[in-house]
């Protein structure tokens, strides 16, 4: 516990400062452009810490996340034509390569749901914004669906972390770990549900044409 307490104190100092919120925004913009470290983890941690320690402000973190995600996604969309060549050269066996296959398969089923669900999948959202930007997908439609996805994503990411922190408010570190794990499971679950929904819809359409 003696080693953990200074870490908790550091997080309390960091998340208690007003500068934490613009830092969250900048991190999420960077994550949208290069999804190396999923920004969901930061939001899960912030939510869990808010539940157990009282800081940061949940509403402010959600607002900062929404602003950062919308800016980052739209930057990727605008740079789509320039980045698509790089995306197409990625190893098909890598996470990014698999995300390309997922995005292209689901784009044929519906761009709107793919944009929304892709927001929960780090590499998929990056690929989707670039692909859509490269084919000059309607920007207003992209902004509409992306904003819906971003709002849901931000609320769930912070909220799930908050739930984990509340469950283990007496053990902040455990609460943060649980919050992050729950957040990861949600993204996986949403992807599976979307796949099952599209499969069901495709079957229904196939039956209706018989």
From TrEMBL:
Alphabetized PANTHER family for the sequence: INNER MEMBRANE PROTEIN DEDA-RELATED (PTHR30353), TRANSMEMBRANE PROTEIN (PTHR30353:SF0)
Residues in VTT domain copies: 37-162
Cellular compartment(s): Cell membrane
Mode of membrane association: Multi-pass membrane protein
Protein name: Uncharacterized membrane-associated protein
Pfam family, any one: VTT_dom
Species of provenance: Corynebacterium imitans
Key words, A-Z: Cell membrane, Membrane, Transmembrane, Transmembrane helix
Family as reported in the entry's similarity comment: Belongs to the DedA family.
GO cellular component: plasma membrane
Transmembrane region(s): 58-80, 142-165, 171-190
Gene (UniProt): dedA
Predominant location category: membrane
Membrane in keyword set: yes
InterPro entries referenced in this protein's UniProt entry, alphabetically: DedA-like, VTT_dom
